[in-house]
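note to self — DONT lose this again. spent like an hour looking for the file last time. sequence + predicted structure for the chain T wanted, 199 res
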Amino acid sequence: MTEAAPPAPLLLGRVPRQAFVFSGHMADVPGRREPRFPAALWPAARTAIDATLERLGAGPGDLALTQGAAGGDLLFAEACAARGVPLQFLLPLPEARFIATSVAPSEGHWVDRYLALRPHLLQPPAVLAQDKGRTDSEDAFERCNHWLLDTALGSGSNAMQLIGLWNGEAGDGRGGTAHMMDEARRRGGQVTWIDTRRL
């Protein structure tokens, strides 16, 4: 694991045609009071992600960035790997802690799916540098959203595409998909919203 991601051109060795960033709901944890992204929606979400990548012409000349959480992130990562899109995980927390908090708790075999994707990454998952002025993981997910967008915008590509898998509501904490979509629009990126209420 590296402590900070190198610029995307170094990841690829060239400037990507398009830089894709993905943010989306985590798969529900067992006993979630109000279901948000239950297993029944996963196949439709994967189909919608595939259709979006097809519409945008995603392929080996592009770059895909996401955190790698259970649910939307890993569905996106699997779809990119199947298309040969170069893929990189940027993590808000050290990998073992990220897996423990954002992959393992959800229903399904998400840890196995995360580990199966690891060999497809351009480099081992990169970890957000710790802000020594803050406690532990305070706002790490929000800062990681900025890092993902900064990496895409710094890739040299003229087309940053954010794909958001979202129900249109506020998230469970800071740094969710609503924040990412607002930031991407503010920075001039193209945003595709896959509305989970319509899956």
